[in-house]
Amino acid sequence: FSGHGGHDEL
Amino acid sequence: MTLFRLAGDLSHVLAILLLLYKIWTTKSAAGISGKTQLMFCMVYVTRYLDLFTSFISVYNSTMKVLFISASVATVYLIYFKFKATYDGNHDTFRMEFVIVPALILALIWNYAFTFFEISWAFSIFLEAVAILPQLFMVTKTGEAENITSHYLFALGSYRALYILNWIDRYYFEGHWDPIAVTAGIVQTVLYGDFFYLYFTRVIKGRKLQVLP
Predict the structure, then answer these.
(1) Residues B122 and B128: beta-carbon distance below 8 Å
(2) Taking a C-beta distance cutoff of 8 angstroms, is the pair B40, B127 a contact?
(3) Pick from A7, A8, A10: which is nearest to B9 by CB?
(4) Are the beta carbons of B126 and B39 closer than 8 angstroms?
(5) For residue B173, what is the nearest residue in chain A, using CA coordinates?
(6) In terms of DSSP bridges, do strands B208-209 and B143-144 run parallel, antiparallel, or are they unpaired?
(7) How far apart are CA B85 and CA B79, in angstroms?
(8) Do A6 and B9 touch (CB under 8 A)?
(9) How far is A9 from chain B (nearest CA, A)?
(10) Which of A9, B77, B185, B199 makes the best surface tag, with the fewest CB within 10 Å?
(11) How far, in Å, are B58, B108, B145 from residue B31 at the CA level?
């Protein structure tokens, strides 16, 4: 996750 | 993608399908909290706003579509198709008591003061407490059908497995998601009492009864 790269977990 | 996260997602999918199966095959929403399902709908819609803007993987997008559509279908079955079987008298938890605090907290604690990140944080906080109406309903009715307790077990296990995933990622990748982890721990702890009843009763083939 990162605030900018989007959240990669559901 | 850690094994724990995959197991967690599959447990989550199992829970969602178990609930749809129960309502569809018994043609009844008895014992199911519509309020919890409404809040899960809110959780998925507010969390997956990035469905069309950021592509992570086919798996990620597929699951998002599945969760949103399955939760909408579940709400439809409860409040429309099998409305007559919805036990509103026992589904009395005040949703605003969890929705408002989740929103306030999301405005305070988020990764960026943007609509998307506040919506995401709100979704994470709301998911942690969205099961409360269902757990209250089980205590109010004093029992739950077996398949409902299996549904709750799969649902509770999903975020418990995510906690293992977060430990794994912290250990191997060295970073963690404070908002998701904090909410995930609260969410799993709320199932504590249910897990106890599940392991001491349902596993032994007895009905899940909340002892008066």
Answers:
(1) no
(2) yes
(3) A10
(4) yes
(5) A1
(6) antiparallel
(7) 9
(8) no
(9) 8
(10) B199
(11) 35, 35, 7
3-class DSSP state of B130 = coil
Contact call for residues B152 and B18 (beta carbons, < 8 A): no
In whole angstroms, give the CA distance from residue B16 to residue B24: 12
| The token pair that represents B78 in the structure block | 């409860």
B117 at the A interface (CB within 8 A)? Answer: yes
* CA–CA min distance A3, chain B (Å): 6
**B19 has a pLDDT exceeding 60:** yes
DSSP E strand stretches across chain B: 143-144, 208-209
Q: Which DSSP string corresponds to B155-208?
A: HHHHHHHHHHHHHHHHHHHS---HHHHHHHHHHHHHTHHHHHHHHHTGGGT--E
3-state secondary structure of B13: helix
Whole-number percent of chain B with pLDDT over 70: 100
Do B54 and A3 make contact, defined as CB atoms within 8 angstroms?
no
Which of B4, B12, B54, B57 should be substituted to probe chain A, the one whose Cβ sees the most A Cβ atoms within 10 Å? B54
ipTM of this complex: 0.85
Tokens of B121: 């944080």
Q: Does B44 touch chain A (CB under 8 A)?
A: no
